Task: structure prediction
Amino acid sequence: MITRMTHMNIYVLDQDSAVDFYTNKLGLKVIIDAPMNKDARWLTVGTAEQPGFEINLTPVHESLLHSKDTVDALRDLIKKGTFGVGIFTCTDIMATYEELKAKGVEFIKPPTKEFYGTEALFKDDSGNWFSLAQLTPVNA
Amino acid sequence: MDHRSAHTYPKLYFYRRIVQAKLFIDAHYAENIELYGMADEAYYSKFHFSRKFKEVYRYTPHQYLVFVRIENAMRLLASGMAVAAVCKAVGFEELSSFSRLFKRRTGMNPSVYLLKQQALHKQIAEAPLTLVPHCFAYQYGLVEKEQFQTSDI
Result:
């Protein structure tokens, strides 16, 4: 029986830039930052309100699983905004939208009423996009 | 001014004032800040301001200030700073109230949290792969870790 999700991967173009974005703009905090080799760290971030769930900011580098062609294609797709990664929820979307906009976060859709709540879409510094949602109580 | 803009302007003003107050706390949490000076500035009563802030963030301004101070205390303790220095650095005057509020949020005393963080840093320095899931380390050719053996079950 699967009980919970503890980690998810997000492919990022640059780990230093990504950790700055996820901490200083989105307000998440670093959970683990451990070196793996000269190019990559096991670098996870999470929210203060949801301990036990970590987002792994995964660098796109050649590895045993990813050839150079795969890396080039993946980096290109990320930059094009191909990947919708997940949904962040918040207590008040208008306040969060105003705050993130003031911090320079790029929104591709302003807060809009949907049947499940109010939702905006933003991009991270690599090009991955997220939903920012204030869900209606029945969906929260 | 159409009906829509007449309706949305005060709401936008309200949100901007509340967000500014939150960002002010984020930036000045370490100082002895007068929380309800922000209410005066926004032409709100202290109680109205506090209630509206809580509607948006689920914390009163004072509760949010404590939350931000404790979060930053965790960050500073993780960097290796001593407990008494952290207490002052995040804006608490009394070590006892800092410890009590820290424990309320994290479930442990600041000194215990510091020791745990020091142990984590030692582990990162001496054996970083013990923190990296094997499936991930494998991608990078880092396979020094022991393989899981079904016979261990």
Remarks:
- Chain A touches chain B at residues 7, 29, 32-37, 40, 42, 48, 56, 58, 61, 63-66, 91-92, 94-95, 98-99, 102 (CB under 8 Å).
